[in-house]
Amino acid sequence: MNSEHQGIQGYRWESSACYACHPTGDANGAFNHQTSPFPLTGAHVTTDCALCHTTGYANTPNDCYTCHQQGFNLTNKLNHTLAGFSQNCTQCHNTTAWASTTFNHTTTSGFPLQNSHAGKTCVDCHQTSYTTTSNECSSCHMPDFQGATNPNHVAGNYPQLCFNCHTDVGWAPATFDHTIVNFPITGRHTTALCADCHTTGFTNTPNQCSGCHMPDFQGSTNPNHVAGQYPQTCQSCHTSAGWAPATFDHTIVNFPITGRHTTVPCADCHTKGFTNTPNQCSGCHMPDFQGTTNPNHVAGQYPQTCQSCHTSAGWAPATFDHTIVNFPITGRHTTVPCADCHTTGFTNTPNQFSGCHLDDYQTAPKPNHI
């Protein structure tokens, strides 16, 4: 056995393992590393086999650190041991040479170096280690946060999530997208200072108008919101464009404002406030119902569903659509006063002719119906 074969597991000249290096069976064979799990590239191509295979050719590790541990430990330009560098050499080095080195921050760490970060040296951020470095802005920029005076971040209880307002292009200009907290800044709010609303800090700030505008609500006199028991849901009547003009969309409470109602002051209907206001006509118009004489609604036992005969355009003319009770008014019936048929009121009135005309039936002489 030749001395250079020492350490090759299972070496025998007649063994099939020989053909890995001696494909033709002669003594001048070579091992094709390119077809192995560790192809030789760069400086490895000219390296003697024994420099890597120091204890034999079986179970030789294929990670860089096993062979290059001494180089890792002795590096004095960016001391790898003190800095806590990863022992995965391929993250920064290649097989051509140790230098120059590169580290792909985007694919390896998920923290792309761009804009202001692109010109920094590694130790600017990695001051104590390369394996436990935080990717939160505040981990590097806390001195900037604490020293900020325009506005003062500490006094204003600003959150330490720098990226909510800043970008890696630069600290200024700084903006905050209020849509992410379901409070878009529109109208007059666009010119308000942050501190006007965030008087006690930036956490738990109310997103209801009354949270900031209660003094406006309490001081309003036209109309007086407190005396009128107006609801504190300001957005029901007001917009961020300004307090006036103020409008309320009655369709959202299933009571559209039409006809004569469009000119009625709110307080005429909302005499006791804006909650539990009845949406039936009789809730406001019972005095009209009780006082009417043409015809007398109380004596005639008219129903209190005013909308059956009246509209919001005005009390008169009043009509009732008999088709909705399956008794259309036709012929001579069109000239008959309501009370002629509704002698006992407007409920349970018979819709058969005999209900009203039984006397005519019984007294008919020609021919005698009975």
Blueprint (SSEs and pairs):
Blueprint: H1 49-52, H2 64-74, H3 80-83, H4 105-109, H5 122-125, H6 137-147, H7 194-197, H8 210-219, H9 266-269, H10 282-291, H11 338-341, H12 354-363
Q: Would you mind describing this structure in some detail?
A:
- The chain is built from 12 helices and no strands.
- Among the domains are: 3-99, no CATH class; 209-279, no CATH class; 288-363, no CATH class.
- The longest helix is centred in the N-terminal third of the chain and has 11 residues, at 64-74.
- Helices cover 22% and strands 0% of the residues.
- Residues 9-14 have low confidence and may be disordered.
- The protein is mainly alpha-helical and 370 residues long.
Question: Quick one: how many beta strands?
Answer: 0
Kindly provide the radius of gyration, computed on alpha-carbon positions and rounded to a whole number of angstroms.
Answer: 46 Å
Structural class: mainly alpha
The proportion of residues in beta strands is under 5%
Query: What overall form do the CA principal axes indicate?
Result: elongated
Contiguous helical run count: 12
Estimate the mean pLDDT confidence.
Answer: 85
> In sequence order, what are the helices and strands, one letter per element?
HHHHHHHHHHHH
**What assembly state would you assign to the polypeptide chains in this entry?**
single chain
Q: Low-confidence parts, pLDDT < 50 over ≥5 residues? A: 9-14
Alpha carbon gap, first and last residue: 142 Å
**Proportion of helical residues:** 10-25%
The major β-sheet equals:
none
